Amino acid sequence: MAKFGKKYVEAAKKVDRTKTYSVAEAVKLAKETNIAKFDASVEVSFKLNVDPRHADQQIRGAMVLPHGTGKTQKVCVITQGPKEQEAKDAGADFVGGKELLEDIQKGWFDFDVIVATPNMMGELGKLGRLLGPKGLMPNPKTGTVTMDVAKAVEDIKKGKVEYRVDKEGNINLMIGKVSFDDEKLVDNFNALLKVISKARPAAVKGTYIKNLVISTTMGPGVKVTVEK
């Protein structure tokens, strides 16, 4: 543990805590200060001036990053009838109806995302206590409750990410891997920033994005300059 601490301390020395960096500089520095031996994730953390206790300030949605996340998501589609074949053709990893719900009830979670057709939400709702805490409950706002299961599956496979503000006003999201070219990470960052900026609630007065940080899985945070 001490060895890890020393590496982190050395890496952190390269980051000037008193300044903010352009996104290109921040990406470069985050990669340089990565101390993991594996291909670590590159993450963005937003601190927003919102109060999520108010319904009109709950920021939630999904988007497809231009270059994906570098992580392959396993998709489980809960549907019946012709939509089953549509989901399979689109590349879903698991497709089915009540039999899959029974498996989940018994503790099967070998997937990352659930997509469901609206007619299955009544059955899925019964598993809310299992799926809710894991963040797996499908939601129309993130495009995971839909009749267009093919598009939903394709988007997720391309690198769709879901964002949601927590009760402290933070949003944390993966935008790629350390192995990505800097330009791809910058593109992904800018696409995400645009979406979060557009989601600004009308009730928010003054500064909306209070703090913006890029980091790798085990590396120090690098503050990014927020353009006014």
UniProtKB/TrEMBL annotation:
Pfam families: Ribosomal_L1 (PF00687). GO terms for biological process: regulation of translation; translation. GO terms for cellular component: large ribosomal subunit. It comes from the Bacteria. PROSITE patterns: RIBOSOMAL_L1 (PS01199). SUPFAM superfamilies: Ribosomal protein L1. Protein L1 is also a translational repressor protein, it controls the translation of the L11 operon by binding to its mRNA. Binds directly to 23S rRNA. The L1 stalk is quite mobile in the ribosome, and is involved in E site tRNA release. Part of the 50S ribosomal subunit. Belongs to the universal ribosomal protein uL1 family. PANTHER family: 54S RIBOSOMAL PROTEIN L1, MITOCHONDRIAL (PTHR36427), LARGE RIBOSOMAL SUBUNIT PROTEIN UL1M (PTHR36427:SF3). This is Large ribosomal subunit protein uL1. It comes from [Clostridium] innocuum 2959. The gene is rplA.
